[in-house]
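Dear Dr. V.,

Thank you for agreeing to look over these. As mentioned in my earlier message, I'm a first-year student in the group and I'm still getting used to reading structure tokens, so any feedback on how I've presented them would be very welcome. I ran two proteins. I've put each sequence directly above its structure. The first is here:
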Amino acid sequence: MIRHLVRFLKLIRLPNLLVVVATQLLVYYRVFLPAYTSVGFTPKVSEWRLWQLIVITIAISASGFIINDLRDAKVDEINRPGTNPVPALGRDLVQWLYALSVLGGFLLSLIVAFRLNELPFLWLYPLSVGLLALYSWFLKGLPLVGNIVIGLYCACVPGIIGLAERARIYKLVQVAPGTANKVMRTLFIFMLFAFLATWLRELAKDIEDREGDQKTGLKTFPVLFGTRPAQVLAQLIALATAFALLVPILFRWPSYASFYVQSYLYALLAGLLVISWLFYRAKTTQDWHNLSTGLKLYLLLGLGLLASFW
């Protein structure tokens, strides 16, 4: 029983889901709520509705992890023998878990959309689930396309709170444009950082999995063009990430003027230099695995961008 529970938690990537929870909580409590408090607004999304949105996002993310393991059961036996939980749990059970995740999340999203009077945006749920499924079964086997899809999804995790609060943001622009700019710029920079850093990590994983991907017919960027061009691409993405982090400082955005925020930005830039160096030096599968793990930690540290404001 305990072994099956451990396998289930591995299947749904519990640490990754906790990052999703932390991201949306930080966006709500450290970006939007202080801005609203400063002008006497109340959020459109109550704390109870916030947790419902978080559960919906968890359901979408978990469905993506589950179907990805279903799709990768064979290739993982080449790249990481014995690590995929699907064979141990049983394919039929995992398929049922996938269905429950998708249907449960959709029912909750239907309730939330109705309560918030946001039924026109209900299509976002099947779009998200469908894209993650399409990624697992087709897009991940194309050069760059799969990486970009996952990067965009990770950027949308904090963005969904902004979408739900767009009516309040519009009012905030009218009442306190400076505060509204601070909110939107903070959210934009973090979403851009999440997109680019996730793309970097996905590229590192593709290089790590090159052998298995090649044997199973996947046409990822490293498979088609080789490791060295993939390393060059990684340097370009790292450069774009560095520019994104420098924009607030170069353009002297007021919300990034504090010593603490700027220090954190420079710390992330220093970490990016280390990552770029590791990309350049990496040669073995273990090197790429360590780099992928390091990038996961780097993404986690990026949450500090949200925690450092106000």
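The second protein is here, in the same arrangement:
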Amino acid sequence: MAQFEPLQFRCLPRKVSAQKAREFFGKMRLRRSVRAFSAEPVPREWIELAVRTAGSAPSGANCQPWHFVAVADPAVKARIRAAAEAEERKNYESRMPEEWLEELRQVGTDWHKSFLETAPWLVVVFAESFRVSETGAKRKNYYVQESVGIACGLFIAAIHQMGLATLTHTPSPMGFLGEILQRPPNERAFMLFPVGFPADDATVPVLAKKDLEDISTWLTEPDSGR
């Protein structure tokens, strides 16, 4: 039987809530995916706090089906880069259809992934398809993709809030990450985040975000206004 405790929640005055929402939006709208990192060290505590924030995400039946592997070892990062570039080169040279390649040209990416070694941290998120009890019995996890996706979103927000940069890197296929990082067979690599300070000369493509009207539909009472 589940145990319950009082909800720890503090209601804010409406003006304060609106101001906090505007401030958060103003900061997050400046977030960009970065592919040029500084080698300046980042304290482990900062990464730990970002992972803790990600771990606060809601999950199906509270299974928390995620595992974060944080890598700062240069030798391991080099192995990850070599394996990722091998797969990405195949993607760019033969696997990807021309339509996809045309889309990628707009953001200026190719199979070279030097950021996998330059960034001081690589954080690999694994999705746990099922749990294994102490007796070896398998227990299903629920809404794994949705749960891990939410956790990754919180991780990105936490990294940006502390003044660091990251990139949602998903080399395909990603089986090599489980092998290099020696993860159990019930885990599959979900996303790879290089994390660090952006390089002084980092640039990003000029991209436009969709307007509110293009990403939302509002059904309100006739007299409720906006």
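From my reading of the second output: The longest strand covers residues 187-196. The first helix runs from residue 14 to 28. Does that match how you would interpret it?

Kind regards,
E.
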